[in-house]
Design goal:
Layout lengths: L5 H41 L5 H24 L6 H33 L4 H25 L6 E2 L7 E2 L12 H24 L4 H30 L9 H27 L5 H6 L8 H4 L1
Antiparallel strand pairs: 1-2
Length: 290
């Protein structure tokens, strides 16, 4: 059984308080974005026929919401068992990976679209995504020990990890590398567009939105990597809420921007496949496509 000294309790209380504030802030940000975009969600997602794009949006938004609700509930809950906290560490790791992969599907499709549906590039990106997921899982298996997650003590809430390895940060290296590759592909396309003065407003919208997303995700991954490497071990969970909030929020924003832009331009409901994935050549204007 883990025995806590007075000095440890004081440090744990400070670390857990910072973690609570961080998790709560990520949840509030997610709820705020949900509230201000709910009208657009109703207009573009809930009305009209169900499409792959709409299902992907609903999965991304409500997967993120449910994950953050669980995160907040555990963070502010007392009387947790050792077994529960150990399982909770695994749950966090796996669900963060699922969230990243879910949103990356949107980005893979957008890169595929702006590169004029290059099949070889698509296969390469899918392969990179699979390698990223496999490498991350292997690192989790290697570094997350069964007794790592422990319940907080002395009337403190949530779980903490006094024995967490610094090497847990390695779990963010494969996703970080994957995002860098996708970001560089989009940056190259942006540079090529300006250099050759080609592309339509469709291409500009796809590229700019994607670059903003990439930099946001890179910032979140890099922050969590640095926290795990450098911060006190009591703070290892401080940034996890943002790994749910930022990717899911940005992914939903990407889809809503597409639906808003093309839906309003065409005056009708447009499927995700038609506007940014497989059926639109982004290098042509709407008039030339017709």
């Amino acid at each position: 059984m883990f025995v806590a000294s007075q000095s440890f309790l004081a440090m744990a209380k400070s670390d857990l308080t910072l973690t609570e504030y961080s998790v709560l802030a990520s949840f509030v940000l997610f709820l705020y974005d949900h509230a201000i975009t709910f009208d657009a969600e109703v207009m573009n997602i809930w009305k009209g026929p169900r499409t792959l794009g709409k299902l992907l949006f609903l999965w991304t938004r409500y997967f993120g919401l449910s994950s953050l609700i669980i995160q907040v509930t555990v963070t502010f809950h007392g009387s947790l068992s050792n077994k529960f906290c150990s399982v909770f560490f695994w749950w966090q790791s796996v669900f963060v990976l699922i969230g990243i992969v879910s949103v990356d599907i949107i980005l893979l499709a957008r890169v595929y679209a702006v590169y004029d549906r290059n099949k070889q590039l698509l296969y390469g990106m899918v392969g990179l995504q699979l390698i990223t997921a496999a490498a991350t899982i292997v690192l989790y298996v290697f570094y997350i020990s069964p007794g790592m997650g422990l319940p907080s003590v002395h009337n403190l809430t949530g779980c903490f990890a006094p024995s967490a390895s610094r090497n847990l940060a390695d779990g963010f290296v494969p996703p970080l590398a994957n995002e860098v590759v996708l970001c560089l592909l989009m940056l190259y396309k942006q540079w090529d567009r300006y250099r050759n003065e080609i592309g339509s407003s469709q291409l500009k919208r796809l590229v700019q939105d994607s670059i903003i997303y990439f930099f946001c995700i890179l910032a979140v991954h890099l922050t969590n990597l640095l926290v795990l490497y450098l911060a006190p071990r009591g703070l290892v969970l401080m940034g996890i809420g943002w790994e749910f909030a930022i990717p899911c929020t940005m992914g939903c924003r990407l889809l809503l921007n597409i639906f808003n832009h093309y839906g309003s331009a065409s005056g009708q409901h447009t499927t995700l496949l038609q506007i940014s994935l497989w059926e639109v050549n982004p290098f042509k204007t709407r008039d030339s496509a017709e």
